[in-house]
Amino acid sequence: MDVFILALFAHTDKLRPSTLYQLLIGKRTSSVLSYGCFYDRLGLFQALPDLAEEEFKQRIDTLLQKGDLLADQAGLIHTAAPTADNLSHYKRLIEKASFYRYGRTWQDSWRALRLLTQAASYQGVTNHYVPVENTPMYTEPVRAVLRQVPNLKDDLFQELWHTFEQMPAETADFLAGTLTGPQTLGKTFFQLVPDEYQQKPWVQLYTAVAIQQFLALIEEKQTSILYQSMLPFLQRNANQSMLETKRLFQMGLSVKDIMAQRHLKEGTVNDHLIEWALLDKDFPYARFDRQIYQLLPAASWHYRYQVLQQQLAADFLPIRLFQIAQKRGILC
Question: What is the pTM of this model?
Answer without folding.
Answer: 0.90
